[in-house]
Amino acid sequence: MLIFYDITSEIPGRAWSPNTWKTRFCLNYKGIPYRTEWVEYPDIEPLCIERGIPPTSYWADGKPHYTLPAIHDPSTGTYIADSLLIAEYLDKTYPDTPRIFPRGLEALQLGFVKSFMTQLDSIWTSIIPQIANHLSPRSLEYFRRTREKSFHKQLEDIAPVGQAQSEAWDLFKRGLDVVNGWLEKNSASGPFVMADTVSWADFAVGGYLIWMKIVWGEDSQQWKDISSWGEGRWGALIEGLEKYSEIK
């Protein structure tokens, strides 16, 4: 049984992080047995160093930056972090399970996700401060310290207000409308990027959408707006991923 390391929270079910949701979708889709080990923010680096999990990036000062998701596969002795690397590992190591990346379309999948990510640029500062509402005191202290260092301002001052907030939201909607326009070119119908075929692109996009749904709240005006855009495409995608959303 694999061990899946995820970032804990005070949200019912605890799962919230967009990147760890990508890995959860992948594991559930492939039907690989696993259990979740929940980790507080300040415990991520010590855990990774202890287990030999490599950093996924580096801070501006050159210090290693350790992040989740990560998995441990006892059958191979492998520890690996980063949702994309985990997905590639799962396809390679478990070839008899459904593929995350359809054969021959790996490059197109990655290109689509990269293009999708550019459409989210305007929304980061609006949602990041909201994460603080769902963390334990220990994780909140770490989250506040590291985000304030990155943004060079107090956490409460990161989100745009007034006209700037409206403009950021409109830009975000236009970005999702662009992506919706791409997907309308599909000749087949279905809620997924490849119409009726689920793939990495859905897990990546879905990870960010479910993050927004959880952090803002299912009953929030933000999620009501997002889920209705594109004639309900984004809400339909999350509904289509429901079968892969079990928290174990």
Automatic annotation (TrEMBL):
Pfam families attached to this UniProt entry: GST_C_7, GST_N_2
Positions of the GST N-terminal domain: 7-98
Stored Gene3D superfamilies: 1.20.1050.10, Glutaredoxin (3.40.30.10)
Leader peptide range in chain numbering: none
PROSITE patterns per UniProt: GST_NTER
GO cellular component annotations of the record: cytoplasm
Name of this protein: Predicted protein
UniProt organism field: Laccaria bicolor (strain S238N-H82 / ATCC MYA-4686)
